[in-house]
Design brief:
About 45% of the residues lie in helices and about 15% in strands. The chain is of the alpha/beta class. The protein has two domains: about 190 residues, no CATH class; about 350 residues, no CATH class. Strand 17 and strand 18 form a beta hairpin. Helix 3 packs parallel to helix 5, helix 12 crosses helix 21 and helix 16 runs parallel beside helix 17. The longest helix has about 35 residues. About 10% of the residues have low confidence.
Length: about 700
């Protein structure tokens, strides 16, 4: 059975009792960076669960208890000897901390012993030096016979077993090293090659290679070009350890490390981790003023522009929808008041209520009371509108729903901002400096070229100005469906679907919006007809004809994860039925985990041909048939497992029908009946959707 790296990562985090960054990479040995708190684990694909869990527990022990110390300054001890003793200490402390992990270590080491990972099957253990026997005794001593001399070896063994802190480890390692060096058979003298400075040529290299192979002491940043400039003190101290030929060896340590390498699947796909970049939203957001100034410049003074007909359509829609807006306001106020009264407290004042004095014979409560009703939470709404070409047929209906919510916000004094995402608006700031919009470094996702967020509506404008701006937007979106004798301002035509780029920007926009408006609760409403394309990321590429590698935008590899250093969460990006949908869902889940005080609501206007794919979001097959029945009856459904707190799907044909009852004078009885039934059905659907929406935000 294939190993789930995510499960093992969660195990490591649980054992460490902190949100460690756990990475599975194509490295030969595990290591932990004490500065970045990144635990790097090899991809032990061929290891059993018992061995894998044992190895994870061992490395977490190093993460918890091995300090970042430059211990080599004062003591000239080979790293292997320190590592032997430190392994004993950290495993003892892990067993003390987690009672159940003793069984994990027992089973893991038994399997290693049975498979002869220490390569002692053909060896006479009794003739090995003390360091090798100590290493075997504390790891697989339950499965093989290992003895020590009582008069000189056992005191060192007891000393190692009694280590409680790292200073004890250094003292015991020093004692072990001196003993092994003393017992080392004398080697015949050989001529050692000298370098130009008269130093031994191989000693430093040998020591360096030896030190890099020690689990728990190596720095993962030494294994990647990205972190080569920030080597930890532990790593430096090991690398600087000099060693002479004829030093005592710890063969069982080397054998174990070589055997563990056989568990690594060299043909497997390496896990890649990417992060959300820091985004400079000031250079990405096109201001509300700039947007509508451009509309004014495009239309005013042009003799060919005529808005009489489309403005009449806007006014007609505004009149027809006021009942729905008022219903929304009433429901919101009722729910908010109900919540406030549910949290109300009543207390006695100590002042006599003269109106109750006549009841003193049978009533003990003669004092006035005061009820304290807490204020409701301050709300705010952020709207994100899909301004892509695929929205052309449903854009007008979508914007009508948006306008209902904007009027609702205006009547309830809720601050709001409406952003439309596009990659067609000419962003001069990006043109001048592409790196000014988003973080540019290895391991982060890239913001698409020419991506912009148009702030088309905002509560910061007065009512008169807001009305003008809403007319501007209505004119533009109306022209996407119906031919008009006016043109769309440059840059405001429909484009691609940079939805995922917008979601990354929300990491900056939502906290800023909340802080500026002093809000307690923020709702984020995303109106779209689908999903955004997967994001590219920055990778290092070495081309054969170039001396230095370069950073390029490339697609993530198959086995890729989104990693959030603030929350400690990782999210699988692929291996799903719909790669595009999965990417958006992952980004939404990340937002929800990062911004816990924000509700994310999706509204999707669906043509009839897309309802099946929308229902497919529901992973529970037994619920799909029920959703299909609800859709057939009500022409709307809501999901809770697509990244959003609630994801509304609304029929485009149903929502485009005028909810007002109107017929021609010459209409027959049958036509009047059908028009009336259609009107009632549309009103019922809208009220249901609006009711669910209010329930979420109140």
């Amino acid at each position: 059975m294939a190993v789930s790296h995510e499960i093992k990562s969660q195990l490591a985090k649980l054992l460490a009792t902190e949100d460690l960054m756990v990475e599975h990479k194509k490295v030969e040995t595990a290591c932990f960076n004490v500065h970045t708190r990144v635990l790097t684990l090899p991809m032990w694909e061929k290891a059993s669960n018992e061995v894998y869990d044992m190895l994870v527990g061992h490395e977490v022990g190093h993460a918890l208890y091995t300090p970042d110390e430059n211990w080599i300054k004062d003591r000239k001890i080979p790293p292997q000897f320190v590592n032997i003793v430190e392994d004993v200490r950290i495993e003892k402390l892990m067993k003390r901390r987690y009672a159940g992990i003793s069984k994990t270590f027992y089973r893991g080491y038994k399997e290693l012993s049975d498979e002869d990972f220490f390569c002692i099957e053909s060896e006479d253990v009794s003739k090995m030096n003390l360091a090798d026997r100590v290493n075997l005794y504390f790891k697989i001593g339950s499965f093989c016979d290992i003895s020590f001399r009582e008069y000189d070896e056992m005191p060192i063994v007891r000393m190692i077993d009694g280590c409680e802190d790292f200073e004890d480890v250094l003292l015991a390692a020093e004692a072990l090293y001196k003993f092994c060096k003393k017992e080392q058979p004398e080697q015949p003298e050989t001529n050692t090659p000298q370098n130009q400075n008269g130093e031994e040529g191989e000693s430093e290299n040998t020591s360096s290679e030896q030190s890099e192979q020690q689990p728990g002491y190596s720095d993962p940043e030494n294994q990647t070009k990205e972190g080569s400039s920030e080597e930890s003190e532990v790593s430096n101290s090991i690398d600087n350890t000099g060693g002479d030929e004829g030093e005592p060896e710890v063969k069982t340590m080397d054998n174990l490390e070589e055997s563990l390498k056989d568990l690594i699947d060299e043909m497997g796909t390496e896990t890649a981790y990417y992060e959300i970049p820091k985004v400079n939203t000031e250079n990405i957001i096109i201001s509300n003023k700039e947007i509508h100034d451009k509309c004014h410049e495009s239309w005013v003074g042009n003799p060919y522009e005529d808005f009489e007909w489309v403005d009449a359509k806007y006014n007609e829609f505004k009149r027809s929808t006021q009942k729905e807006v008022n219903y929304l306001v009433k429901e919101f106020e009722c729910r908010k008041s109900a919540d406030s009264y549910a949290r109300a407290t009543t207390s006695r004042t100590g002042i006599l209520d003269t109106g109750k004095l006549h009841t003193y014979r049978y009533n003990e409560d003669l004092f006035k009371k005061v009820s304290i009703i807490p204020d409701g939470k301050n709300h705010g709404l952020i709207f994100v509108l899909d301004w892509s070409g695929s929205m052309a047929d449903v854009m007008l209906d979508t914007v009508k729903q948006l306008f209902n919510l904007v009027w609702f916000c205006k009547k309830t004094n809720i601050p709001f901002d409406v952003y439309a995402f596009t990659n067609d608006y000419p962003n001069q700031k990006y043109i001048d400096d592409p790196k000014s919009c988003s973080e540019y470094r290895l391991g982060v996702f890239s913001i698409g070229r020419m991506f912009s967020l148009m702030n088309i509506l905002t509560s910061k404008t007065n009512s008169r100005e807001l009305e003008k701006q809403m007319k501007n937007i209505f004119r533009i979106v109306h022209s996407f469906r119906v031919y008009n004798n006016y043109h769309i301002p440059i840059g405001m035509g429909l484009s691609g679907t940079p939805l995922n780029e917008s979601l990354m920007c929300l990491h900056e926009i939502l906290p800023k919006f909340k802080k500026e408006n002093k809000l307690q609760k923020v709702q984020c409403v995303i109106l779209t007809d689908g999903e955004g394309a997967p994001l590219k990321c920055y990778k290092e590429v070495q081309r054969p004809w170039e001396e230095e590698p370069r950073i390029c935008e490339m697609w993530p590899s198959q086995n890729s994860f989104l990693r959030d250093r603030k929350t400690g969460n990782t999210y699988k990006l692929s291996d799903t039925y719909n790669h595009y949908a999965n990417f958006t869902t992952v980004l939404l889940n990340n937002l929800r985990h990062r911004l816990t005080d924000v509700n994310f609501i999706g509204i999707r206007i669906l043509p009839p041909r897309e309802i099946s794919s929308f229902i497919a979001y529901c992973k529970n097959y037994s619920e799909r048939d029920e959703l299909a029945k609800i859709w057939k009856k009500e022409k709307s459904i809501s999901l809770t497992n697509a990244g959003y707190h609630k994801y509304f799907g609304i029929s485009s044909t149903a929502i485009s029908n005028n909810s007002e009852f109107s017929v021609n004078d010459s209409a027959t009885k049958s036509q009047i009946k059908n028009a009336f039934a259609k009107s009632l059905k549309s009103k019922k659907m809208n009220k249901k959707i609006l009711g669910e929406f209010v329930e979420l935000i109140a």
